[in-house]
UniProtKB/TrEMBL annotation, chain A:
First and last residue of the signal peptide: none
Taxonomy of the source species: Bacteria, Pseudomonadati, Bacteroidota, Sphingobacteriia, Sphingobacteriales
Pfam families: Usp
TM stretches of this protein: none
Protein name: Universal stress protein
Native source organism of the sequence: Pedobacter gandavensis
Domain UspA: 148-276
TrEMBL record, chain B:
Name this polypeptide is given: BCCT family transporter
Biased composition (Basic and acidic residues): 509-527
Originating organism: Pedobacter gandavensis
Renumbered residue ranges of the record's region Disordered: 507-527
Record keyword Cytoplasm present: no
Topology in the lipid bilayer: Multi-pass membrane protein
Family statement drawn from the similarity comment of this UniProt entry: Belongs to the BCCT transporter (TC 2.A.15) family.
Domain of life: Bacteria
Signal peptide: none
């Protein structure tokens, strides 16, 4: 990167208890990444409103009321360092309203809540991660306000350089003391089509896989931290990844939106998709593109 | 090269199971050798005795098992998840289907895909009017034998193994399946007896497959190089191929065997695609749809048909043999599908195991059997002659009618050999697991021992009476195991019921006010 990119953020608010921690997190995020501006955005879910609220005049009034309420709440939580604006829309489909707003504001990072204990199914986040043409960061209300560890999920796919680039961007910008970075890979032995592998053979093959990947990593990224290869054992890759994140008490996981098996998982759900369903106190950054300066 | 070889000759075994199984195997082999002269007649009369008197029991059992599977899938147990509420599937659906199919397919589909429909056409189970009607009936019965019933047996055994192992944290072993009503006695002689029966069923089921495979390899080599058909040559092939299979175990060439297994799948699909492309493709597409429809339409009728009024004896050599064969294979296939199915719900598991592999198997049978019947309906009866003379030659006589015969025949021989190697290797692992009391490590030599035991049993059965002996052995082994499976169904239901009773819904999420209320409150505040 010749120069530091300036990141424009679109933060999705849903007027629930999730909003407060999300706004606070953006303050923290500005210490991790070079943020240029944040657009706080809410789309009014018309389908869930009582009939009497659905006239255009009423919707405008609701939009203005929400805007005012957010204007009153945000400064106390965000502080005065980060420029921001507030947008409220009333589209039928929230994902489309996000798309339009992102285009209008030339956004390059969406930040959404990832409810762990609060009610919510995370359906919107699933859709947005797939359809938005830029990165998405999911923030749980249980995030750690003093991040110590960032994990870079490496699968040697086309997204790996992007994951590394976002890691580097944080490394260059962060102001957190003791923040560490660890690239990890989950080793899942493909024993499909072979019923007869004994546990000892599976162990041996896993060891070979670990050795092979570590060597490949050292060749590809000689200056990066050494790759930690974690055997998935009887878990799927997503579960093994999240289990490691929990074990290490990591605060942010950076991963590609699709892995090496994107073709076969196009219809069945990729590792990224499965990760979304798992409980985690870490923030999840799903990357798609290399950052342009 | 022998990097994995460990000079550890001390076997790790569960003594009662290991020695009793060895005793029973040696005892049956000694009997075979002592009464070699009269073996042929003995196998014939025993097979007739069992199938004529107890065939109905096997037919009833497999129908019950299929019904039981559907009851579990669509009933209240369907939502129980293998491995607990929070378990997630280890493999994607596509990988899982591929693995399920590779577990169940093997030498059998090579041996019977041509021979069976042709035989059913030539010697029909029931009289039928015209040749097309005979052909439809032949495909229906082939579908019956290779379709939902076979996979239901694997599904119920696999489900029981997975449930007791993942949810009840018991060892992945047959004795564990009886815990709900045997309790701690599963660790005593009750448990040992169940494991011994599993070993015997698996061993004879595999030996039958190996016996069939080697007969077909011999037929292929005869067609390709003119080598004569003889039991001596077949015994020699068994020893050679088993030796190749065991090299992988002791020498750390497991990567090679893994390649072979993946090669199996690729070669099998290549062979099927080539036969489809060079054969009557449009007819095959049409007949696959029709065969599936006829199979489903007549499903209950053919599933419960017992030949009660004609008593032609046809069913004894086919349907009863198949049901016993699948039952004998079930410990082998069941333990594999259990291992790969953690995180699936009972419903997902049963429907996945029943439907996906059955459709692919029926597709295979249509491509090969359907093409063979197409030739016969066009007036070419050489395939009927081949099946009547020697059933193992059917595939190669068939391939003579397809372009690039030498290449396809060579591919078929190689495929059978590959299936032989992987079946032998995987089968010896399953038997080794049971007889070692599920030990996490056993010396490689121990697995080699079981691979060669299977080979010896196959050789003795071939000398004893060929196909008849192989079929009888599998029926003798499968019959008691059918009783075990029925008991297992009861035990599984009991276990699932306990799980359901324990299952309490936990509300993890904190109740928040609805979006509608949020907006309403906001507007009221404004006022």
């Amino acid at each position: 990167m010749a120069s530091t990119p300036n990141i424009k953020v679109l933060a999705g608010l849903d007027l629930s208890e999730m909003d407060q921690p999300l706004i606070k997190y953006l303050k923290l995020l500005s210490e991790l990444l070079p943020l240029n501006k944040v657009t706080f955005f809410h789309n009014i879910k018309q389908s869930e409103l009582p009939e009497s609220f659905k006239s255009p005049e009423q919707l405008n009034t609701i939009a203005n009321t929400i805007k005012k309420k957010l204007e009153a709440t945000i400064p106390a939580l965000l502080g005065d360092q980060l420029p921001y604006d507030i947008e409220v829309s009333f589209e039928d489909y929230t994902e489309l309203s996000f798309s339009k707003m992102a285009k209008k504001k030339q956004i390059n990072l969406a930040v959404l809540g990832n409810k762990q204990n609060l009610e919510g199914n995370g359906g919107l986040a699933h859709k947005l991660i797939r359809m938005l043409p830029f990165e998405t960061l999911l923030v749980p209300e249980t995030y750690n306000p003093a991040p110590k560890k960032i994990i870079e999920a490496i699968d040697f796919s086309k997204y790996t350089p992007t994951v590394m680039q976002w890691g580097k961007l944080i490394k260059n910008h962060h102001q957190q003391a003791d923040l560490t970075f660890e690239p990890i890979n989950i080793s899942k032995l493909s024993w499909k089509f072979f019923p007869g592998l004994s546990n000892a053979e599976i162990r041996k093959n896993t060891q070979e896989d670990i050795k092979m990947k570590s060597e490949k990593w050292a060749k590809l990224y000689p200056n990066a931290n050494p790759l930690k290869v974690v055997p998935a054992e009887d878990k799927n890759i997503a579960s093994a990844l999240i289990q490691y994140v929990k074990k290490e008490k990591a605060d942010l996981l950076i991963m590609g939106v699709q892995g090496v098996t994107s073709v076969t998982t196009l219809f069945m759900g990729s590792v990224a998709n499965e990760v979304l369903y798992l409980e985690s106190n870490a923030c999840l950054l799903f990357v798609k593109h290399k950052i342009e300066s | 090269m022998l990097k994995n070889y460990q000079p550890n000759f001390k076997f790790i075994i569960n003594k009662p199971v290991f020695y009793s199984s060895i005793f029973l195997i040696v005892f049956s082999l000694v009997l075979c050798l002592l009464f070699q002269e009269s073996l042929d007649a003995w196998f014939n009369s025993t097979k007739l005795l069992i199938t004529a008197n107890l065939g109905w029991f096997l037919i009833l059992t497999v129908n019950f098992i299929l019904g039981f599977c559907l009851y579990l899938a669509f009933g209240k147990f369907g939502r129980i998840r293998l491995g607990g509420e929070d378990a997630t599937p280890e493999f994607s659906n596509i990988s899982w289907f591929a693995m399920l199919f590779s577990a169940g397919m093997g030498i059998g589909i090579m041996f019977f895909s041509i021979a069976e429909p042709v035989s059913h056409f030539a010697q029909p189970p029931r009289p039928a009017g015209s040749a097309p009607e005979l052909a439809i009936q032949a495909m229906e019965f082939t579908a019956l034998h290779w379709g939902l019933h076979a996979w239901a047996i694997y599904a119920v055994v696999g489900l029981a193994l997975a449930f007791f192992s993942f949810n009840k944290k018991l060892p992945l072993s047959f004795r564990s399946l009886f815990y709900p009503f045997l309790g701690e006695r599963i660790h005593g002689w009750w448990g040992h007896s169940i494991d011994i029966l599993s070993v015997i069923a698996t061993l004879f089921g595999l030996s039958t497959s190996l016996g069939l495979g080697v007969q077909q390899m011999n037929a292929g080599l005869n067609f390709l190089f003119g080598w004569g058909m003889s039991t001596t040559l077949q015994s020699f092939i068994i020893v050679i191929v088993t030796s190749i299979a065991t090299i992988s175990v002791v020498s750390g060439l497991d990567k090679g065997v893994k390649l072979l297994s993946q090669g199996n799948m690729i070669m099998a699909f290549a062979l099927m695609l080539l036969v489809f492309a060079f054969g009557p493709s449009i007819y095959l597409l049409k007949s696959f749809i029709q065969n599936t429809g006829s199979y489903l339409a007549d499903f209950i009728e053919i599933s419960t048909w017992n030949d009660s009024y004609r008593q032609s004896g046809w069913q004894n050599s086919w349907t009863v043999f198949y049901w016993a064969w699948w039952i004998a294979w079930s410990p082998f296939v069941g333990s594999f599908i259990a291992k790969i199915s953690k995180g699936r719900t009972v419903k997902e598991f049963i429907l996945g195991v029943l439907i996906a592999p059955a459709i692919i198997t029926l597709l295979w049978m249509t491509v090969f059997g359907g093409t063979a019947l197409h030739f016969i309906l066009e007036g070419d009866h050489t395939l009927i002659d081949a099946v009547n003379t020697d059933i193992s030659t059917a595939l190669f006589v068939f391939l003579q009618k397809i372009p690039f015969t030498p290449i396809l025949s060579g591919l078929a021989v190689l495929l059978v050999a590959f299936f032989f190697i992987t079946s032998s290797d995987s089968g010896s692992l399953v038997i080794d697991n049971i007889t070692s009391g599920n030990a996490s490590y056993t010396p490689p030599l121990q697995r080699v021992f079981w691979a060669f035991t299977q080979a010896i049993v196959a050789i003795v059965l071939l000398w004893g009476g060929g196909l008849e002996a192989l079929q009888t052995a599998v029926i003798i082994a499968g019959l008691p195991f059918a009783v075990i499976i029925l008991l297992m169904c009861y035990s599984l239901k009991k276990g699932l019921q306990e799980e359901l009773n324990k299952h309490k819904k936990k509300l993890r999420s904190k109740q928040e006010k609805s979006y509608r209320d949020t907006i309403s409150d906001l507007m009221s505040e404004q006022k």
